[in-house]
Write a structure and sequence with these properties.
alpha/beta, 3 domains, seven-stranded mixed sheet, five-stranded mixed sheet, binds 1,6-di-O-phosphono-beta-D-fructofuranose, binds manganese (II) ion, FBPtase_class3
């Protein structure tokens, strides 16, 4: 019965025997093509320019192709110039013009070279897929130029020459170069994975989101910073206060005020009154910090399941002595006054109540976050393309961790009297995160978004976050944020295999791909751990980390030949890239080479195609036996 319905539906799409045969032939051909290139990046942290650059140079893949084709025939400088033109065609063309270097001869040569690169890259795909990647206006010409047919008299060469002549004659060469550059980049990477943390620290996460929303094929694994913004947009006040605090701290109010239309005016005016001798932004940071500790205090008090009452520190402040009592020890604090806090030792909850004015300010901010159309669009996209983890072509991708206990077993976490661990726990977290985004989200679901940002056993955070201590306590030994045991155990192949098995991955080709923690190369750390089972690919885009890492960071490329880690030097600027053709220096390191080239048949898509072929063969049989009209 089920089969019949399925065949009927299939027959609507393939109404004749010939149509079925054509599709089977087509699908079988696809199975025999090399697997497309996957590109992995993580921890973009609002660094739009550096991200753009790595996206443009496809972690060095473009350069490899240019070298492959022209190493013997072109100088280093010429090859670098081709790369820059592909990365930044508009800007580079403008510069060429200023320097009057764009004569006809140059156009002829460069167009020929770009076509050759596009041809090389398109050889991995079906002609139809390549055509779909082209803009309609140019599809015909591009298709002609890229697909060469051998003939006796070189007719084709003359024909191609003719097309190029006409492009030049019509003054369309620039536009065509832009289209070619876009096509080359589009073909160099088949699918992009963003392993979390698009938001915070750097200034332009909104522009990164715009770019991702136009990208041809990608998925996102939510990072702790992403989930924080998602929680804020959903209306969690603890998340809102944290977002504002993070962005005030990094002087990034542009993203809030200009990009998302969230005004901090009321907060700033309020803060200036409270802290008259403090610089306005500094005062706003103070005011929002107190709001944050009150709001997260309320979340902790409402949710005993979180087991985070040791984080209730605001009521432990002794304003007269300028100290706070943490686990029985008094520590000196750097804040003089807490004008909005009513300290009442006999009633803990009083310290965490918002004043009437604070309530009003929070309500204004909540409405601004929930009501921002652009923010909603960006968060919708994070929900659409994103998830807590993803299994893709046999690899397991997540930002933070799968929480483990002290002995290296999957850590059990109890919510509403039910215990979750491993994959179940991550699935549970994802369900609640999705419910938090629905119109009838409950306070508990919103609270959970805050928990995912910094909760004791949050898979996205994986550490014991010390925001209060880092804000107020002078003794920096209290600032240390202990990591979940996962971050010790993930050095062991056995443990990584245990985690992979938990997600039903048993192949020795499976890996964990992890973001979240910068790889401190200068301290001898390496992104590949556990005998190759796990890779940490923090892209190191975040400038404030370059000191500790020694290099910028790592990205990963997985193509038909295997997996390669790419290490990158810090990105200087688009200007340097243009004037000096300065690429980010990217070194490639082979992690795993495939014995045989991986084909589409070995991928997730391949499995789906094989299923489709099975169905089509059933339909073909039905047509032939006459059981289907
Ligand atoms: O996911 P990331 O980038 O490590 O960010 C989370 C970390 O940021 C912090 O909030 C501190 O950030 P800053 O040092 O930038 O203020 C830590 O408490 C927390 O561990
Ligand atoms: Mn992170």
């Amino acid at each position: 019965m089920k089969d019949e319905k399925y065949l009927e539906l299939l027959a609507e799409k393939y109404p004749t025997e010939q149509a079925v045969c054509r599709e089977i032939i087509n699908l079988k051909a696809i199975l025999g093509l090399p697997k497309g290139t996957e590109h992995f990046m993580s921890d973009l942290h609002g660094e739009y320019e550096a991200f753009c650059h790595i996206l443009n140079n496809c972690s060095g893949v473009i350069r490899e192709k240019v070298d492959l084709l022209f190493e013997e025939t072109l100088s280093d400088i010429d090859r670098e110039e081709i790369c820059t033109l592909i990365y930044y065609p508009v800007e580079k063309l403008e510069m060429m013009k200023k320097e009057s270097r764009n004569n006809e001869e140059w156009y002829r040569v460069i167009l020929g070279e770009l076509i050759e690169i596009a041809r090389l890259l398109s050889s991995k795909y079906t002609r139809s897929k390549v055509r779909k990647a082209m803009p309609d206006e140019y599809a015909y010409i591009l298709d002609e130029l890229i697909h060469v047919q051998k003939d006796e008299d070189d007719n084709q060469v003359a024909y191609h020459q003719n097309i190029i002549d006409t492009l030049l004659e019509l003054d369309s060469a620039d536009a065509f170069i832009e289209v070619l550059a876009a096509l080359i980049k589009r073909l160099a990477v088949d699918h992009l994975h963003i392993v979390g943390d698009i938001f915070d620290r750097g200034p332009c996460a909104d522009r990164i989101m715009d770019l991702l929303m136009n990208y041809h094929s990608l998925d996102i694994e939510w990072g702790n910073h992403d989930i924080l913004w998602m929680g804020a947009a959903a209306g969690s006040e603890a998340c809102i206060a944290t977002v504002i605090r993070n962005n005030l701290k990094y002087h990034n109010i542009r993203i809030l005020e200009n990009s998302y239309g969230i005004s901090l005016r009321d907060l700033t005016l309020f803060a200036e009154k409270l802290y008259p001798d403090t610089e306005p932004m500094e005062a706003a940071l103070k005011a929002i910090s107190v709001l944050l500790f009150k709001l997260e205090g309320q979340v902790i008090l409402r949710n005993p399941d979180y087991q985070m009452t040791d984080k209730l520190l605001l009521h432990q402040v002794n304003v007269q002595n300028h100290t706070v009592c943490i686990a029985g020890t008094d520590y000196e604090i750097c804040e003089e006054t807490f004008p909005t806090v009513s300290f009442d030792p006999s009633n803990l909850e009083v310290s965490y109540e918002l004043t009437a004015e604070e309530k009003q300010i929070m309500e204004g901010l909540r409405m601004a976050f929930v009501g921002s159309v652009r923010l909603r669009q960006h968060m919708d996209f994070l929900y659409q393309k994103g998830s807590m983890y993803r299994i893709f072509n046999g690899n397991l991708l997540f930002h933070g961790c799968v929480p483990l206990d002290e002995s290296g077993n999957l850590e059990g976490v109890v919510f509403h009297q039910k215990r979750y661990r491993g994959r179940d726990y991550l699935d549970y977290a994802e369900r609640i995160a999705r419910r938090a985004w629905s119109k009838d989200a409950t306070q508990k679901e919103l609270d959970f978004m805050w928990y995912l940002w910094c909760g004791r056993k949050s898979p996205l955070s994986g550490r014991n976050i010390k925001t209060f201590e880092r804000t107020y306590v002078k003794d920096e030994s209290t600032w240390h944020e202990a990591s979940n045991p996962y971050y010790q155990y993930y050095e062991q192949e056995k443990i990584c295999n245990m985690i992979l098995h938990e997600f039903n991955l048993y192949s020795d080709r499976s890996h964990i791909i992890n973001g979240h923690t910068p790889v401190r190369t200068s301290r001898g750390e390496h992104p590949v751990r556990a005998n190759g089972r796990l890779m940490v690919i923090d892209g190191g885009f975040c400038k404030s980390y370059h000191k500790t890492t020694g290099i910028a960071g790592y990205t990963l490329i997985f193509n038909s030949h295997g997996i390669r880690i790419k290490s990158h030097q810090p990105f200087q600027s688009v200007y340097a890239a243009l004037t000096e053709n300065k690429d980010i220096e990217s070194r490639s390191e082979l992690v795993e080479t495939e014995r045989e080239r991986l084909m589409v048949r070995n991928t997730d898509t391949g499995k789906k195609i094989l299923e489709d072929i099975k169905g089509l063969k059933m339909l073909l049989q039905a047509y032939r036996e006459g059981t289907m009209e």
